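Hey, resending since the last one bounced:
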Amino acid sequence: MATLYESHETAWNLISRGKVRDVYEFAPNEMLIVTTDRLSAFDVILPTPIPDKGVVLTQIANFWFDKTNAIVPNHIVDPEPFSTDPERRHLAGRSIVVHRAEALPVEAIVRGYLTGSGRKDYEKTGTVCGIELPAGLVEASRLPEPLYTPSTKAAIGDHDQNISFERTADLVGKELAEKVRDVSLELYAFGAAYAVERGIIIADTKFEFGILDGELILIDEVMTPDSSRFWPADGYMVGRSQPSYDKQFVRDYLETLDWDKTAPGPALPPEVAAQTAEKYLEAWRRLTQG
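The structure tokens again:
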């Protein structure tokens, strides 16, 4: 897939192209991450970009990286590498320079509310990812306590798979698996408390970690509308699907289509793309200016 920002491809060697981010060699042991306006849903990259989504995601992630540095260090070297570079103005706001770390092969998911695949799992088994929950919970119920439910990191086009904590211990070692779990829960507790004061419920979120010089660090993104479910606190109501500031709006639209959730994904109508962009912007404003 061609990048949306082809003019920067000749400057640095491309390391990888993810669902949303393009990663380049930048300097010895450093990488440049450019967050594009691509959007993925159901693990499929859609052909319609969301205007300025990459800028919004980068700025929200940078905000949280700064706020959570006391909990766990992160990979940031320079959060605004092109802010004064007129030749690379198209990359400003959506680019960061980071340490090159060894990424862990798991995604650290924390769920504070019952929704999505967790609700489907609960309705079938009374559990979420094997963790037993009280009877009588419904869509959007707040969980008795946040749940740590790790998953594998799937290749583009494949679906992540939930795994047990014991499996993460097999993959990374028991001590590191415990640290990832504990740090993830602490990050979520901090972020959820901060966000709800600004009118946003973080229903669930995903963290990614790496190892740098033998230490655990936070990488990729953190508590953005792409890696989390953001709900307006003033519209929260148990027992129904919630309005959101994240790409759930797009997922809901896609669920109305006759699409089997495999590539290629369908194009989005202009009004859906525009409304999604506004939801991302509103989340940014509430978190950083509220």
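Residues 6-101 form a domain with the Phosphorylase Kinase; domain 1 fold (CATH 3.30.200.20).

Sorry for the duplicate.
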